[in-house]
Amino acid sequence: MNDFNNLTRRELLKMSGLSIAGITFLASCGAQAGVTASPNIASAGTVPPTTALGEVVISDTVLLRTAASLEYNAIDTYTKVLDGGLLTGDFASLKDAVKRFRDDHNGHADAINALVVSHGGKAHTCANTRVNNLYVDPALKLITADGNADAARDVVTLAHALENLATQTYQGIVALLAEPSLRGSAMRVGQDEARHAVVLAQVLNPGYMAIGPSTDEVTGKAKVASVPSTFGSLSSIQISLGAPNSEGAKTSLSLETPSLNGLVYDEISC
Amino acid sequence: MTNKSASAAPPAPPKMPTSADKQLLDFALSAELSVHDLYVNAINSGMLSADEKIMMEMFSDHHKSYAQSLNGLLGKAASNTRNEALYSTYAGQLTSAQATNRVLQSVENTMVATHTDILSSLEGLDGATLVASIITVEARHAAVFGTLPSSSLSNALNSAASSLAPNAAPAAVTTETTVAP
Question: Of A171, A207, A260, which is closest to B136 when you measure between CB atoms?
Fold first, then answer.
């Protein structure tokens, strides 16, 4: 370990001078050096065009419409699970619970959309496209792929992740909602999603020892916990789904609450 | 989550608790101290199984953490005394392991309702985000009591608890019916 306490003021100044020189050199190597691009310099591949996000305002109604859209992600997923007969074997007994969860999400969506309308917005009655594209659709594809012997368990894993995602979304928008009463309304629904998550967590990892956080001794990964932290977390949600690869590992997905490009702005309609 | 766009956005809410916020947050702090003490009573009762005891020690620690966090936010405005009315209402009901589970689930549901009510009135974002992060976990506590030792879906999900919060504005009216508190 370095003994920085023994450095003199002169040595420190010398070190900082060298650091500045290094940073200047590295900066001059990059595009910011003012060198214009030349067609004579070969480059591999093409840079896809990007679409900048237009001028938008993240109002309370936009945040609530986004929350409503996640309710429809859950509703649609549970409908696919029930209609597709994906709960089999030991998990078949969960059908009633899944129906209850879907009913709850329908109630949540109606409640949130009623708030949207009462605050001058337009109700949003369909799923969040970005959440579907990034998480739900790839997850269902992995679950229903040939060779997945754990499809029913994976369905519960996905449902648990979606309930946690909804919980985090409601908790997260509390910091962004301008009207205090709407924060309470958001958490009135958010706490219900947390209860769903607990029921599913106890299916995936039952018993008293599964309430708090724990680690799988074989894989070193965190086990599913009913109460994973002291305070509600807003960190990304990691899940592993699908048929294992040749090394026995499932495909990992990381779910995050909607960001700027996942919000349901006023211009977006179903 | 994300940051708000600067264009045409409404004025940002205050970060720190207002005077009115402090009164509500102090009430929340006193309630958390009471719940912590109720769990300590249960843990020391000798009526719980080893598994139940471990669970309640965890939940007790959580409530202590909530009280400490609220205390940190309030600073000198924190009274740091438990809510005697809340404590005495439930302390005498911890008469058996089964009763303890039932009563503490009711307490957790009451805390969820109380904090949600308080949240609906808080202006300052620091207090609001802290209370929101407490609500989700206390709802989880309540749901755990509905799944263990025996699982009951309706017991885990339903709550008829009322808020204890003084002078807190109710959350904006919704037509939602499945979320009880």
Answer: A171
